[in-house]
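Researcher: Structure for this, please.
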Amino acid sequence: MKVRISSGLWIFIFVLSLALAPELAHAQTQTTSALSTEASHMDSLAATQGQSKVVDKLSTDFGSFLGADATGVITGLRNGTPITLTTTTPGTTPTSAPVTTTTMINPPTGKMGWGNVYISLALAKQQLSQYGITQPTPQQLQAALTGGTITTGTGTTATTSQLQGVLTLRSDGMGWGQIAQKLGFKLGPVISSLKAANHGLAAGATSSTSTSSVAGSGISTGKGALSKGGSDEGIVTGSGRPTGTGSESGITTGSGHGYGVSGGGPGGAGQSGKGHAK
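Model: Predicted structure, token format:
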């Protein structure tokens, strides 16, 4: 039985699509903007903290996906240089030599920012996961990044799929949002993971700064105050009496007086010069 749709319903659907189009376009623009913001933030963190820390972070985040090749792949994508991956498999017979296969990935995008490196790997990972691939071979990774075929299943259930390659689409001038849409998924998970990576990098920088600051400061308790930090500083107690004796330390008591203490000679006590603490 054929179902006929009245012309009035068609008109209603057409008008509804026109009404929703601006909202959908606005939402897509906001998503793309959020992704660009996080990508730029990662580039800024690399500039302030050093690129090695970003490499370590990306290697950790994509460690299970890229395995031992993580650092090499990440660095190659960043620099836009060829990435050489090798796979060694046992020989066909117990006495035959192992077979080594070399796969070359040539990024068509050239040098990329750290944020774009993260995005490209996240999209490749998400695409391969749709085929049930979580730890790709070099050939499968090459297909996801620059294009090629992948085969899933074995025997009569084997299926071969053609991938266009995330980096190839990017080099053709497509935006990340367009690429995600073409591959059939949303950018939301990519933005979330990139934002979490930036948060981890920023938190690591704050932790390092705090540790450095504490390591260079003196210690005081109660009413005592230590005006100068350093490994040679004494410790001031609540009563204002110094408990630590550095070899050359300026000690401030609870009453606010300062004492410069010099190390004494063998068998003799050190001499002290009394003065007000600044």
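Researcher: Any notable elements?
Model: The longest helix spans residues 7-49. The CA atoms of residues 239 and 254 lie 6 Å apart.
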